[in-house]
Predict the 3D structure of the following.
Amino acid sequence: MNGNLNTSRREFLRSLGIGTTAGVVAQWSMAPAFGLEPRSDQNNRLIRLDSNENAYGPSPKVLAAIHAAAESSNRYPFAQTDSLCECIASFHHVRPEEILLGCGSTEILRVAACAFLYNGKQVITASPTFEAMEQYARSAGSVAIAVPLNAAFAHDLDAMLARSDSSTGLFYICNPNNPTASLTARRDIEHFVSKLPATTTVLIDEAYCHYVGKSGAYASFLDHRLDDERLIVVRTFSKAYGMAGLRLGYAVGSPRKIQQMREFNTHRNINAIVAQAACVALEDQASVDEFGRRNANARQEFFNQAMARALKPIDSHTNFVMMATSHPANAVIDHFKKNKILIGRAFGAMNTYIRVSLGLPGEMQAFWQAWDTLPYPKGTMHH
């Protein structure tokens, strides 16, 4: 980034009082964000491996920003919200009018459904994938067509294209995909988009992009943009930035597409704390890199433990893993819950698979201890 961008961001952070607060973060009770002890639910002491959250975050710098912002939480964050939009735009080298903020990326999906699925328009998604898009489409009176993933657990783009017609208003591609943690190759998506009519919108959900390792098959559509007005890219602060509880997502697209969506956006939908903390999170690349490194280590250890038990999870490019059990998923989920561990819900046709979010080392050790007490023959489980 150029010097002007860095200077403007430093001025923005200084205006929040972050500089004075950062010095006391070590004394703040929430500061051990990089600790390795299991973080359990305060009320029932459950280990939470169910919602694909960042087990380590937010970072100390972001926690300091949250603490500073809390002091002014009695005020509406009008100016901070505008500054946040400018900060995100600068980060991605786009204009502010190409940015739409949402109360989590799920609000972005709701707004997209309202904006592009009108007068009987339909949406085409994968199956399984993140279900919010389909749910919002139905609530907007749209038809949602779910196309099964292919044998490699990638989006079957040819089949999705074959199901489309003049009534198709939107395609939803979650990449990496939730719940399978799998990738759809960038070149395949580009080829797919090139075949679509100009009236179609493609929403690419990159919630887990920060967890993808080096891969010739993957490149973010924000980090390596495709000059195509049909594309809208969705990001969130809920995963790698460790801010799921503060609810902030955003879309990047052409001014025309963003304006179409803005008409359905909730007015002043960003809270005062996240409006100030998110720009600090964008600046704190070192912590994002550290979260990614720890996640990669945890993911590799999960596969090591799985292979030692003759298991073969789906290859993961996220902070969670999906794995076959050869038994009804709900029964396995109930077993873990009895052992005070929450894992992901069952997913439609893949109802013998479980989704496991990657937690802290102690939490993952508890997961495998509970796995080893499953009342099934486990050595033959594979996909």
User: Anything to note?
Assistant: The first strand starts at residue 47 and ends at 49. Residues 1-5, 15-40 have pLDDT under 50 and may be disordered.
